[in-house]
Amino acid sequence: MALSTSSAITLYINGEKYTLPVDHRTTLLDALREHLDLTGTKKGCDQGQCGACTVLLDGRRAVSCLQLAVAAEGRAITTIEGVADGERLHPVQQAFIDLDGYQCGYCTPGQICSALAVIEEHAAGWPSAVTEDVRPEAGVPALTPEEIRERMSGNLCRCGAYVSIVQAVARAAEAAGTTAEAAESEVKEVAA
Predict the structure, then answer these.
(1) Nearest alpha-carbon partner for 182 in 151, 134, 139, 150
(2) Cβ proximity of 117 and 60 under 8 Å
(3) Cβ-based neighbour number of residue 165 at 10 Å
(4) Closest residue by Cα to residue 180 from 151, 129, 149, 138
């Protein structure tokens, strides 16, 4: 008896439930783009190197070209289509527009999804490869341009909009109150 190479899966994408039949070898990227017509997530290198296909899986970044769709079953998936609140842009999206954090726009959906995760990771106190003091008692590191560049390094921009992307992430983090200064203010308020 031959084993089946396809099955029906249920994906939870941007707060909606989708059930679809897929070949077990189908990547999440192809399921999004080819099966569900969610084309905001871009296919760049198809090898996990450029970040154009970055989505959020349970709030963590993932390159969807390396993630099998069957492995994403039951997890909360956020694509660029699910970032805005209706017609109101997310602060990260608005910062990218205000600061020209895009040029051709091809990498922008992946950059924005990655930026959302970067801001959350930073706010949670996760260190990066350039964080000077990684001890928990050191607190949240400052979200410097070097920190942002390191944390966003998995997302390539072939147009070279990196300076504006770093500025956009910094502005969005500041608006979210997740900068080191905001974290220090919260600590001082709790201590008072």
Answers:
(1) 139
(2) yes
(3) 27
(4) 138
CA angle, corner 57, sides to 50 and 67, nearest 5? 55
Picking from 110, 88, 87, 111, the residue whose alpha carbon sits closest to that of residue 99 is 111
CA distances from 116 to 23, 25, 51, 58, 173 (A): 30, 28, 14, 12, 9
Residue 59 in tokens: 């709030």
Q: At what angle do helices 91-98 and 162-176 cross, to 10 degrees?
A: 140
pTM of the model: 0.88
Provide the token pair at 157.
Answer: 């921009």
Q: What is the mean pLDDT of the segment spanning 20-41? A: 97
Residue 177: phi, psi to the nearest 5? Answer: 75, 30
Distant-in-sequence, close-in-space partners of 1: CB < 8 Å, separation ≥ 6:
none
Which phi and psi (to 5°) does residue 18 adopt?
Answer: -125, 130
CA distance 18 to 10: 5
- Cα–Cα dist 11/32, whole Å: 10
Distance CA 136, CA 125 (A): 8
pLDDT in tens, 50-92: 999 999 999 999 999 999 999 999 999 999 999 999 999 999 9
